[in-house]
Amino acid sequence: MRRYALPILAIVLSVILSQAQTDVPATRIDVSHISGNVYMLTKSRTIMYRGQNIEWTGNICASVGPDGVLLVDNGLEHVADSIKASLISIGHGAIRTIVNTHWHQDHTGANHVLGAGIPIIAHEITRKEMMTGKSYPNGYTIPPAPREALPTITFTDSLSVHFNGEEIVLLYFPHGHTEGDIGVYFTGSNVLYMGDTYNGHFFPRVVGDVQAYAENYRRLIHRLPQDVHILSGHRPPASLEDVKVFQSMLSETISVVRKQMEAGQTLDAIKEQGLPGRWQSWGREDVVNALTAEEWIEVVYHSLSNHSIREQ
């Protein structure tokens, strides 16, 4: 599965990161109060992607209160000052803790600027990924993160942080957008920030086992209150009903591909037949971090094939 996913990811990262470094003034940050202590900071800018100008957005989550600021994710180094200014506009003091939902640089790139001298928390796999340089088939490379940017507190399954009068639960979400994804649940504010593992009404980029990924969502849905606020790395705020639809898409499309594979269909034949009509609009070429229907079919096909090989 990873052998297929990484070339796609490399293309997306190279587009976003290369343009971001040369387009600093174009990045804007808007602040929205979500619930309780929780605010969302939305970065946006216009970039060239797959031959067309599109509006790229990326979200940051913040708990703001008497203890100061707990920041979940950030951005590339050049947006650090804009993030600080946005937090000052909300008030209530300095950044006291940073949480990273996964290793990608549009979520961790300002760690060393914003997190000097304070705890940085992430899953143990995220720290390992940040310590490791990346080389992709298209020639794009990512160097190891500087020592000052590395998480200083890591965990394997779950971790509770008590901050601004509420328990903030960090939950490992395996087989997701990366192998080290976590969700961050603000229990008092009733907000769950899911980073890039939730992709709204678009086919997601997944590096793990798609069946396990879908099962994670089935379990998650049963744990959350009906009125929970769902935030993600690149999509507008969502509801539990939106997450249920996302889980339905995963289950149904995986089932469709599996049945065709069991009937002896080739990957090309499955692509030609396509997915059920209700999911056709989820495949997009003009949305960063989304896949086309054919790309999603290929991801599912290779994941199911790898799973079958492991079982033999």
In CATH, the homologous superfamily goes by the name: Ribonuclease Z/Hydroxyacylglutathione hydrolase-like
SSE string, helix = H, strand = E? HEEEEHEHHEHEEEEEEEHEHHH
Q: What is the percentage of strand-forming residues?
A: 25-35%
User: Tell me, what is the CATH class?
Assistant: Alpha Beta
**Regions with pLDDT < 50 over 5+ consecutive residues?**
1-7, 19-23
N-C termini distance:
17 Å
Q: Which strand order spans the largest sheet, edge to edge or round the barrel?
A: 1-2-3-4-5-6-9
Largest sheet: 7 strands, mixed
Helix-strand makeup class: alpha/beta
Strand tally is 14
How would the global form be characterised?
Answer: globular
Number of domains: 1
Residue-averaged pLDDT: 89
Supply the CATH architecture: 4-Layer Sandwich
Helix content: 25-40%
Q: Rg to the nearest angstrom? A: 19 Å
Q: What is the fold-level CATH name, i.e. the topology?
A: Metallo-beta-lactamase, Chain A
Number of helices: 9
Detailed description of the structure:
It contains nine helices and 14 strands. It is α/β, with parallel strands linked by helices. It has one domain (2-248): Ribonuclease Z/Hydroxyacylglutathione hydrolase-like (Metallo-beta-lactamase, Chain A). Strands 1-2-3-4-5-6-9 form a seven-stranded mixed sheet. It has a five-stranded mixed sheet with strand order 10-11-12-13-14, with no helix packed on it. Strands 7-8 form a two-stranded antiparallel sheet. Strand 3 (52-65) and strand 4 form a beta hairpin. Mean pLDDT is 89; it is low at 1-7 and 19-23.
